[in-house]
Amino acid sequence: MIALASLRERRRSLLGTLITLAVAVAVLTICGLLLVSARPVTPDRYAASPVLIRPVPPSDPEAFTEPRPWPKEQAAALTARLAAVPGVSAAVPVHRFYAQLLRDGAPVTGEHEAYSWSSAVLGGYRLAAGRAPAAAGDVALGEDLGLPPGARVELLTAAGPQPFTVTGTVDGSGIWVGDPVSGTVGGPGSRAGDAVTAVSSARVGSGGAGGGVPVIGLLIGADADPAAVAVAVTGVVGAEGVVLTGDARGALEPVGDARTRWIGLQVLSALAALGTFVSVFIVASTFAFATRQRHRELGLLRLLGAVPRQVRGWVLGEVLLLGLLGGAIGVPAGLLAAGPVAGWLVRTGFEPASFTVLYQPVVPVAALAAGVLVALVGAWSAARRAARVGPLAALREAAVDDRPVSRVRLLAGAVALVGAVAVGVAATRASGADLGSYALYAAMLLVVAGSLLAPLLLPRAVRLLSAPFAGGRGATVLLVRQHVATAARRSASAAAPVLLCVAFTVLIGGMVQTTTAYYGLNRVTAVDAAAVVVPDGTPGLSDAAVAAAGGLSALPTTLYEGAEPLPAAGVTPAEHTVLTVVEGDLATLHRSPMGGSPETTSAAPPAVPVGPAGSGRTPPAGPLVPVAVAQGFAASAGWAVGGRHPVSGPDGQPITLEVVAVLAGGPLPAGILLDRAVVRAMDPSALTSVVYSDRPVPAAVLAGLGGRPLSAAAYAGSGQEEDDRLVWVFTALLIGVSAGFALLAVVNTMLMSTTGRAGDLRVLRLSGATRRQVLGLLAAETAAVVATGAALGLAVAVAALAALARGLSVQLGVAVPMVIPWGTLAATVGVCLVLAVAAATLPALGSRRAASPSAGV
Amino acid sequence: MTSTATVRLHAVRKTYGTGANTVTALGGVSAEFTRGSFTAVMGASGSGKSTLLQCAAGLDAVDSGQITIDGTDLAGLSEHARTLLRRDRIGFVFQAYNLVGALTAAQNTALPLRLARRAPQAAAVVQALAEVGLAERAGHYPAQLSGGEQQRVAIARALITRPAVLFADEPTGALDSTSSAVVLAALRRLVDAHLQTVVMVTHDPVAAAAADRVLVLADGRLVDEITGADPARIAARLARGAVAA
After folding, report:
1. Strand A51-54, strand A242-245: pairing
2. For residue A183, what pLDDT is reported?
3. What backbone torsions phi and psi does residue A533 show, to the nearest 5 degrees?
4. Distance from CA of A463 to the nearest CA of B (A)
5. A677: closest CA among A630, A600, A625?
6. What is the Cα–Cα distance from A788 to A492, expressed in whole angstroms?
7. Which CDD domains match (chain B) (predicted)?
8. Which of A304, A395, A857 to mutate to probe the B interface, most B CBs <10 Å?
């Protein structure tokens, strides 16, 4: 009863807390729904195949690399064994290569790969018109592209644009070409009329380069039980691959989708974490504030016989009701908003196009529970303090905070501070993606420390800030100084949200600018280029575009040590000018014994992947490929000049790498460098990310090739545009959410503060202060508190940014300057100030009780 | 040592501060308040009258001496036990801030019962309010009541547990003379009709005149005791005491 009645009585001052909790629950509902929904979706092209087999994926799912494909011989043998399993009506190996339809010289985005026609059955696709592609130069296109059979089209492949004739259209989306092997079952068949091979090896000019097989799909008989077939198939596949059925087939989604989903996951997790943290923080400061304002009332209840446990129970009961109410508002709001937010995430690029919201009932329940938990955690210390109020409090005016900082608070503040320092130190040793998280955690701890210790710092800071004005005769400075000093905890409650707001906006803004500054610095210094060619509407640049641009470039690919990916890149002898050799010699790097043909010597490739890197004394498996390795990679992998390491190529075929040189650190395209032609021979779909040219590149030479020239300055400034755009949206989102919450808290605290000081203000008016002076005093006091909160927030952000910059410097051996976003800082402080002053003076302006001396009790 | 007094103070001493800043609030006060007595405690500001009340009610610990309420020695009680004693055996009325703003008059009245987790009987609540003449205002919130009415609700609340003693600290301090008279009459009626023990701290001779007996404190010591006096005589005795002191 007391909790409920008290809620009703103080509904206006608790409105801010309620809104905070409702928004937090809504954010948690949305994030929860989207996180639960963010699961891989089975690509349409495999929808009709109940059982699919893929090679063993890398152990780290965040590598976002395709699993090492089966070499074609292994795939053929496996396909034959699978076809023999009872119940299996067809086993279809999937062949694919990079291909994009060119329309009016511009690449059509969406489909990036051409598939072997035989795999169309795995998606249940049928010809809508025309005939199936069979010969080299034949292509079947999805109906949605609107090109009829007989149309002449150009497909952009890794080699460059190639002419094709549309032989048929299909009732689905995609690009299909003739099969590399005749039939879908059985051993390696005739390579005559092998369209995939013909296209993909157009540059290499040799057969058998159709790449490995990434997937084998099964069709099963109408009377066969998919589960039984899956069990039988698992036995047949053994350690050679992974059998996927049902939703697990989502693992076959494009690697790009997986990466996009991962980014979305980071965004949503960060939002949920920040929302939770900020809500706890705001509930804590609001309830701490409310408890102080209710000091006398609580004392009265104690006087009338309430035991401390009862008082604690009321505060927690009140906040429980508030949490439930916030949940009752937040959950429906979150459910309604999840759909539009999901659409926005897809449009922004944080989620793949296949993303849809799954309304799992567990999410709203969990969000509601989380909201209540957040409220309870936030109010916990206030409840404890309320329970400590003695009965004598009812008989006293509590204008002076007896002990502004309790020992527990001091201790907790010190612990948070030490924790922040520890996390900050850890940040300087953290790697890549973790660095930002560490900086954020350090800032969170510093915000907590700052807020806990604010009652200690605030009066001193205000004295310091107001010292220049202290000599005047006016009462305002005196009153401001005294008020802040005597009501240190109240002022600290008001300053805390400002601290939070400034700390996070400045930190997040500064974090992005510091890292961007580093990458920009890195790019400009790394390459002495006049122009840079970047992909335009394509995932990478074709060989034709690279040739047209005429500069330095690397061809990235992936080698495999067992199932684990090793990023590598193909380079030309021209690249040697920007490489620094530490040990060995680059002279033999391009003398590949593979020649033009990567044909392996072993007739039957091993069923199990080649074992881990040998000592160099093991007999080479497959052709010997000379490589140069980065110093860092050599150190971590234990590779040295002269060492031989059996690995698999991007086509799954075994090769042996021989280290001929170790290269100095600095920006290298990959840890392992090898001859560009060798990469092309092994990986017919490899695309170049960027070309650096020492002379300007006219846009015209890239026409129809899916590339775009940029000046070096523009490139360094814009950075990797797509990633940067995502990062900026991410940043804006985080700043928006944290600043939104914090501003809510600023307004709420100020409203509560002024409303709770009606008596004080009346005394001032009775003492002869004019209405204008009272308002001026409120404004000055608010400004002092906001300024101090902002100064503390800036200190927090700068400390965290310094840790971040130090971490980047240590990591890369280059001094990275810390960037403080002064514009963001000014804007944040300005908004805080305006809102806080408005919130502090408006109730006094509107309420006669506060501003008029004649008002009685 | 046995006693029939409801509240008994024996050689109670209470000082605040340490060293040179030591202030003696009570310098060895002994007094007894028997059942059905109405005692006013008077004295100048700083004479120790509020401290006397707070110590007698167990709100503040004493340095030495003994206080018993209804036969229970406060010295041996924990904070929890003292809270329960306050709840069950002591009623309070103060100058202001007496009521919980969020609760109606009836809810405020029933509050001590609820705090004790006893189901409040509606009839008992109405009766308590009726005794102070506010039966028809039961559903009103404190903000809708006059100062005198609020004070009478506070008295009704103090009565609901049938306490051994009612402590009142300047109950008329914030009221005009008309409201004061009504509040004092309500207290008087409790003493006469229910043999309620009342101890009231006041600096107003008019209020003190409603009591049977007036104890005068100065510098933490009992300096005078007046019985059955009217306001003018009390004022005169106070003035004389002040001159003598």
Report:
1. antiparallel
2. 34
3. -110, 125
4. 29
5. A625
6. 9
7. ABC_MJ0796_LolCDE_FtsE
8. A304
| pLDDT top residue among B140 and A696 | B140
Both ends of chain B: CA-CA distance in Å?
33
Spatial neighbors of A10 by CB under 8 A, at least 6 apart, are A290, B102
d(CA A715, CA A520): 8
Kindly state the tokens that stand for A703: 């026409």
Cβ pair A304:B107 closer than 8 A:
no
Is B240 touching A (CB cutoff 8 A)? no
* Chain centroid offset of residue A822 CA: 25
| Separation between Cα atoms, residue B190 and residue B196, nearest integer Å | 6
Asked if B144 has any chain A CB less than 8 Å from its own CB, the reply is no
Structure confidence at residue A397 as a pLDDT band (50, 70, 90) = low
Alpha carbons A414 and A547: distance in angstroms, whole number = 62
| Cα(A671)–Cα(B6) distance, integer angstroms | 92
Question: Tens of pLDDT along B85-109?
Answer: 888 888 888 877 578 877 888 988 8
- Residue A607: the pLDDT is 35
The verdict on residue B17 lying in a domain is no
Q: Which domain holds residue B120?
A: 35-60+83-244
Cβ-contact B234, B227 below 8 angstroms: no
Is there a domain that residue B165 lies in?
Answer: yes
- In 3-state terms, what secondary structure has residue A200? helix
Report if pTM > 0.80.
no
Pick B100's closest partner by Cβ from A297, A302, A857.
Answer: A297
B73 domain residue, yes or no: no
The single-letter code of the amino acid at A642 is G
Cα–Cα distance, A583 to A323 (Å, whole number)? 65
**What is the CATH number for B155?**
3.40.50.300
- In sequence order, the β-bridge partners of residue B9 are B31, B67
Nearest to A690 by CA among A845, A529, A843: A529
How big is the CA angle at A27 (ends A22 and A29), to the nearest 5 degrees? 95
Check if the beta carbon of residue A155 is closer than 8 Å to that of residue A114: yes
Residues with Cβ within 8 Å of A647's Cβ and at least 6 positions away in sequence, in order, are A559, A560, A561, A566, A610, A613, A654, A655, A656, A657
Give B143→chain A minimum CA distance, Å: 10
Q: Which residues make beta-bridge pairs with B69? A: B7, B72
Name the residue in chain B with its Cα closest to that of A310. Answer: B115
**pLDDT-based confidence at residue B43 (cuts at 50, 70, 90):** confident
Report the alpha-carbon distance of residue B165 to residue B158 in Å, rounded. Answer: 9
Q: Which of A6, A306, A857 is nearest residue B102 as measured by Cβ atoms?
A: A6
For residue B70, what are its two tokens? 């209804």
Beta carbons of A26 and A374 less than 8 angstroms apart: no
- Neighbour count for residue A667 (Cβ, 10 Å): 12
Task: Kindly determine whether residue A392 and residue B103, on different chains, have CB atoms separated by under 8 Å.
Answer: no
Tell which of B104, B111, B113 to mutate to test the A interface (max A CBs under 10 Å). Answer: B111
Helices (H), A527-540: none
pLDDT band at B112 (very low <50, low <70, confident <90, very high): confident
CB count in 10 Å sphere of residue B80: 11
The total number of structural domains that make up chain B: 1
A857 touches chain B (CB under 8 A): yes
- Asked if residue B176 belongs to a domain, the reply is yes
CB atoms within 10 A of CB B137: 18
Question: CB count, 10 Å around CB of A729?
Answer: 16
How many C-beta neighbours within 10 Å does residue A602 have?
Answer: 12
Structure tokens at A272: 């949920």
Bridge-based pairing of strands A152-157 and A161-170 is: antiparallel
Beta strands in chain B (DSSP E): 7-16, 23-33, 38-43, 64-69, 72-73, 90-94, 165-169, 197-201, 213-218, 221-227
Which residue carries 């209540």 as its tokens? A372
